[in-house]
């Protein structure tokens, strides 16, 4: 099969997300200037640089109470900071609950029964007990093709790692089993890892 996206795919569901998979989930927490907290998962998320460490996520839809974007981008525009909470398999249901189309007045931490913790380098809440949290300062918000598409880039200025995920000085993902997004309504979980040596 071949299709050009501009002409449509003719399938019951868009296959694009199923092709680019698995995708790590950036569980983004942000805070508005009014002190309201927001927590939402984004599967268009990844690390993009080592030095300095940087990450990005993309928001691709709007909410009627946020104009041209959603709560996360709106809050980040106001404050210039956000946190990336790494999602473990054990928190899959809580993460899913925070993906709902809730109004801006809803605190997803409270709605999903998630305990908050304070970030150390930025004024933002994080998910207490998350395997890792990346505290970020915005470097760029870029409008990309599409009416509601914004790519948010941030420099990681603080890193929290849960002690039980550290093994012999390394962050061991098998200790918490990170959740990843597939296509459609599919998710996967990392339980097995292997190593390959790079060619000399």
UniProtKB/TrEMBL annotation:
Gene3D superfamilies attached to this UniProt entry: Electron Transport, Fmn-binding Protein, Chain A
One GO MF term attached to the UniProt entry: oxidoreductase activity, acting on the CH-NH group of donors, NAD or NADP as acceptor
Pfam families: Flavin_Reduct
UniProt cross-references to SUPFAM superfamilies, sorted A to Z: FMN-binding split barrel
Coiled coil spans: none
Annotated protein name in UniProt: Flavin reductase like domain protein
Species, as recorded: Octadecabacter temperatus
